[in-house]
Amino acid sequence: MAFPKSFLWGGAISANQCEGGWKEGGKGLTIQDFVKGGTASKPRMFTPVINENEYYPSHNAIDFYNKYVEDIALLGEMGFKCFRMSISWARIFPNGDDLEPNKEGLLFYENIFLECKKYNIEPIVTLSHFDIPWEVVKKYNGFLSRETIDIFVKYSKTVMKYYKGKVKYWLTFNEINFGVLEMGAYKSLGLINKEDLNSKEDIAKGDLKVSMQEQIQALHHQFLASAATVIAAHEIDPENKVGCMIGHITQYPLTCNPKDVLECQHKDRILNKFSGDVVVRGEYPSYIFRWMEENNINIEFKEGDIELLKAGVVDFYSFSYYMSNCVSVQEGVEKVSGNLMGGVKNPYLKASEWGWQIDPEGLRYTLNDLWDRYRIPLMIVENGLGAPDKVENGKIHDTYRIDYMRDHVKAMGEAIADGVDLIGYTSWAPIDLVSASTGEMYKRYGFIYVDRHDDGTGDYKRIRKDSFYWYKKVIETNGEDLD
């Protein structure tokens, strides 16, 4: 189970879940600044007006904006080879479509990259991680407008030119495939019903009254923006490597009933394979046209769209993997929750406190499945266990997290032995941050504990967990010592 000597070990965060500094450095508002915190039993809520008396997790998050030097030093101490992070579009172009970029924002990320260089950490930068500028939502209805394609590509070109030589690994859109899910309308595509902009009532996530026709048309525009960005990246610097990012929800048929098998294949294609096929193969797969016809969806293709998709295919395929679900046509089967979507309970798997089914063997299966389909380098850019941590005498003994990660690293090694070209792994997340699904700090992922809590209290102190030292050893031994 030897890992390649060039294997990229690291961790992943996103701007809206860790930075804070929502009004600092010339940053504009993003869609996350309008989402209030929640818990597992109370979903995060969108409201078109910010109430200063309410708690909005992204406003302060874990204050990475002011503590990035300390945090990157901790990543360096662990021996990170790479660090996946995102640039907040609204830090560079506060309104999304500004004529000139915000120099403070450009300098902020430049300083982060310089800190990474001190520790020989390779940045892997996501250009859009669920935080589209709010003005792009209001003015253009997110990616529903074709104008947003050019606005995004201008932003992408700006940062790629500015950070040339400092960043060579780029991801276009985080979990781009979630655009087919109802909750992806706002979070991923920046879509909102115009009536909601004037509403005084809170609106639960995923209930923004946007049609699937609008979502898939907006997703088409994201595909085009991704392709144009890939082309621009290669023109700006031939050393650039651009990947997609798929939120992979691995699915199995609950039984060997052929109807369960066909239903599982169908759901896997729509959720996981559709977006991957477009950005890797450069064309819409045949099966998606039948699905669109059956759902009264008719995408508007314009002249040049087909050629652009074909010319702008990605260099590598990155994805998140936390869990798996089962699929069945049966009524009354037990359901479980998961990464922005749930599924049917698998009787052979245990689950986390949040109901996410733990399935390391599924990671090996997924890696082989993706390698067989695409034959381009693969990278796991999110994988981890969300769990509550207890501080005892200044220490956090998170053996449950170590157990989860050990089993998944073993599965990665097996996949590499199978012949899969896996080039990197960035755990989610190396440091505690705001949960995207619930808005909690109580649900923690990090190797580094942050003294920040759901009621807004805490002094932001960082504490190394037991998993910090375990992962450091894993990196030092290139995955050989997992004890």
What would your notes on this structure say?
It is built from 15 helices and 17 strands. It has helices spanning 15-18, 57-60, 64-78, 89-92, 103-118, 134-140, 147-162, 184-187, 212-236, 258-281, 286-294, 305-311, 360-374, 399-418, 466-476; strands at 8-12, 35-36, 45-46, 82-86, 122-128, 169-173, 203-204, 241-247, 250-253, 316-320, 324-327, 335-336, 343-344, 378-382, 422-428, 448-450, 462-464. The strands form five sheets. It has an eight-stranded parallel beta barrel, surrounded by five helices. The chain has a three-stranded antiparallel beta sheet with strand order 2-3-7, with no helix packed on it. Strands 9-11 form a two-stranded parallel sheet.
SSE arrangement:
Elements lengths: L7 E5 L2 H4 L16 E2 L8 E2 L10 H4 L3 H15 L3 E5 L2 H4 L10 H16 L3 E7 L5 H7 L6 H16 L6 E5 L10 H4 L15 E2 L7 H25 L4 E7 L2 E4 L4 H24 L4 H9 L10 H7 L4 E5 L3 E4 L7 E2 L6 E2 L15 H15 L3 E5 L16 H20 L3 E7 L19 E3 L11 E3 L1 H11 L7
